[in-house]
Specification:
Helices cover about 15% and strands about 45% of the residues. With about 425 residues, the chain is of the alpha+beta class. The strands form 2 sheets. A 16-stranded antiparallel β-barrel has the order 1-2-3-4-5-6-7-8-9-10-11-14-15-16-17-18. α1 runs antiparallel to α2.
């Protein structure tokens, strides 16, 4: 390398001797360029030497695994799906742990005291209402598998969710296939331990199921291509097996008659501290064993969030369900006909205020008209309830809540219930307790 530098300097000397008209300033600039070139050559020599040492070390010891790095998703469509380059880097580095699934455990322990003397589920006892065992991992760079198995003091072990999410479909669509919580409204898409209250709203329990709705089906969703950016629109459409969750009365119990749904979500960033979300859901399904679709339902939801400060926020969430039920009657063996209400409806309104990062308070109002109950037996038009609660967030992974609920039943009577809840997460979970 030194001979190269001498050669370049000699060339400079010849140029100076041959061209007397060259100024001293130009000669000085040329000398500086030669010096920089010499420094670059020395740096390249150092790099080559270091690489030769690394190659010699690898030949003696073999390749060593490098620690895997977690890259955040670059878009909503790619959430949970690593890039091809990330997988290739992990595999080539010998990091076989990259193939292990993410594992998490969620424990939801609830104590319940009630005036009711009925020995109902969870009444007047402290119990592990639900323990979720969560497995999740990318299948490949284009899809992800999520599985949730649940255990409870009240029922046998069950499979709550097991679905594949497929990304990068034509039109930037995303698909989900398997047993899942369909994109319907707001509350039923949320796991019970992540609700703002201990229990689901009454309209969700009465129409969709005590623990919300999760069925086996197929769903497609994606963002609508609109020219404006202030409001984003996401549309989800899907089909699922018939029926609803335990205790729900929206559809019948026949699984082989599929139900269909569509949900449009509209999100608006009003300002840096305020946002709003408006949604609409349409459902159609069967109420009995025949092939006709006798039930049409419309769901409307609205959520408003405002940050008074970075640590203090208020959330106002509302959800309404309207039904149109054909053949809303039953005929007994003796020929007696009983007519039911063919347009029952219900709603809830929830207000939650975060006093600090660790403390929150809130309340909820419920109203829901019953389905397939003889109006002659009703004392009131609907079940109504109001609840108040206080929540202590120990951390992102531990939370404590105390809630009081007063309920007036459509069939007569009322009840006062106190809930105490502790929710805990260990391992990897996609939705911490925030």
């Amino acid at each position: 390398m030194s001979s190269l530098i001498i050669f370049l300097i000699a060339c400079v000397g010849f140029a100076q001797a041959g061209w007397a008209e060259v100024s001293e300033q130009q000669v000085a600039q040329l000398h500086q360029s030669v010096q920089r070139l010499g420094q670059l050559v020395e740096e390249l020599q150092g790099t080559v030497h270091a690489q030769q040492q690394r190659i010699a070390q690898l030949e003696q010891t073999g390749p060593q695994p490098e620690p895997a790095t977690v890259q955040p998703p670059t878009s909503a469509a790619q959430a949970g799906a690593p890039s091809v380059g990330a997988l290739a880097s992990q595999i080539s580095g010998g990091n076989l742990s990259a193939f292990n699934p993410e594992i998490g455990v969620v424990a939801d322990v609830v104590g319940q005291l009630s005036e009711s003397s009925a020995d109902g589920e969870g009444n007047d006892k402290l119990s592990a209402r639900e323990v979720e065992l969560v497995f999740a991992h990318p299948v490949d760079p284009y899809s992800r598998l999520d599985v949730t198995a649940t255990f409870s003091d009240f029922e046998a072990a069950a499979l709550e969710e097991a679905y594949l999410t497929r990304y990068d479909l034509p039109g930037e669509l995303r698909a989900r296939l398997g047993r899942m919580r369909p994109t319907i409204g707001k509350a039923t898409t949320t796991h019970g331990e992540r609700l703002d209250t201990v229990d689901y709203p009454l309209v969700v329990q009465r129409y969709l199921g005590n623990e919300g709705l999760f069925r086996t089906g197929l769903e497609l969703n994606g963002f609508l291509p609109v020219p404006w950016t202030a409001v984003t629109h996401e549309l989800a459409v899907g089909t699922m097996e018939g029926g609803v969750g335990e205790g729900g009365a929206l559809f019948g119990e026949t699984l082989r008659r599929p139900s269909f749904y569509a949900h449009l979500k509209n999100f608006w960033d009003i300002s840096d501290t305020t946002n709003a979300e408006l949604g609409a859901t349409y459902l159609v399904g069967s109420r009995d064993d025949d092939a006709r679709f006798e039930v049409n339902a419309l769901g409307l939801d609205a959520t408003f969030v405002h940050y008074a400060t970075p640590t203090n926020k208020v959330k106002w969430q509302n959800e309404l369900y309207l039904q149109d039920r054909d053949e809303a009657f039953s005929i007994a063996e003796d020929g007696t006909r009983t007519n039911f209400h063919d347009n029952p409806w219900g709603f809830y309104s929830l207000l939650d205020y975060r006093l600090s990062p660790r403390l929150g308070v809130g309340g909820r109002l419920d109203y829901v008209e019953p389905v397939d109950i003889d109006p002659l037996h009703l004392v009131r038009h609907a079940d109504t309830a109001w609840s108040g609660y206080v929540t202590l967030y120990q951390s992102e992974f531990a939370r404590w809540r105390l809630q009081y609920r007063h309920t007036n039943f459509a069939l007569g009577g009322d009840d006062n219930t106190v809930f105490a809840q502790g929710t805990f997460i260990i391992g990897v979970d996609r939705h911490p307790l925030q």
